[in-house]
Amino acid sequence: MDDEEVVGNNKMEEERKLYRQKKRARRKQHTPANNGSSTSFNVPSPPNKTDEASTCLSKRLRQKMTAAPNEYTNNIRPMDVLSNDTLANILFGGFIDQTPRQLANISCVSKRFKLVAEASLTSLDLRKIKLSLLNQIINRYTNLCDVDFSNVQGFADRHMQLLLPIRQKLRSLKLRGTKVTDRSIGSFFSSCSRGKILPLDILDLSKTTISYKSAVTVAICCPDLKSLKLSMCQGITDDFMKCVSTHLTKLQALDVSMCPITARGCRSLSCVMSLREVDVSACPELNAHAIRALVTGKIECDKGAPENVELLHETEWLQRKDNASQLMSICAQYIKEMDANLLDVVALYAPHLKRLDLRHCQSINSADLSPLKLSLRKLQQNGVQVAFSRSTGS
User: What is the C-alpha end-to-end distance of the chain, expressed in Å?
Assistant: First the structure.
């Protein structure tokens, strides 16, 4: 029995030695050779953040795969063939939600994934973020240009200061329903006083306590704005509409619903020739005169203001044709004093209109309903998508 045990132990020791030898051989295949031999093809290290490193990596891969395709492809991983740009397009091309939780999952996959995310991420949805992690996220993802803090509970002035390092890179900033005040908004947009402008394209300050003074500062510091939302901001008045027509000459979409805007403010908006979409729903002074002013540029106290479409002769229309309203969408819910003449004026002065929202109209008599339906049908025949309904109190 003792001899058999000795023989068995010797066999086990030989098997262990053989296993260790095979393991060393496999390690040598995956580690770079130090003797300069041309017969060893090893997996290259992951590329750096820069595009130049990715380009050099691709060249080395093509050269080695051409020299010994069978030996090389057996050891290489598919992800090593992809450049950083291609990998970034795969990760952030719309297939993965760009939230902090998803970024944490990506960073755990590999070190390269983490580096690619930090270097290429530009848009981040922070609506469900823990505000204690905001400073860490801003410092890590320095190329952010689109951030969304809509309805984040607790987002206040002290958190606005954390966005200062990426201020000059931001293209979209959404702060709807946050607790930011004039103090943080003024300091954030004060860089214009030093001869700089902020390159923002989209700004949402709805449901905030922004004042007229801060709104003017935003308009002066962000002349390239294309979309501005100021819904439910009581500091937005007719005076700010004049500021919009003066400074925001590239504005295409404006939302001032539930703001104290009157017909005079709508007249100022008619001067913004780049404007395509306007939302003036539920404004306290929203009536037929305000919509006429929006599309014609005149109110009832102006000389020659068109109350009826018959007042505009064909010769006068030909003269005004080049200066016609460029509006494509008008949202005027809860409008007061609607009539058929208003729809005829809109059809004539806004030939590019594609969408008209007149839901929950107030103060409409049953006798005026038939002419209204006829005018609405004409608008629909002209290709305008019309949404119309009467308020239950009418």
Answer: 107
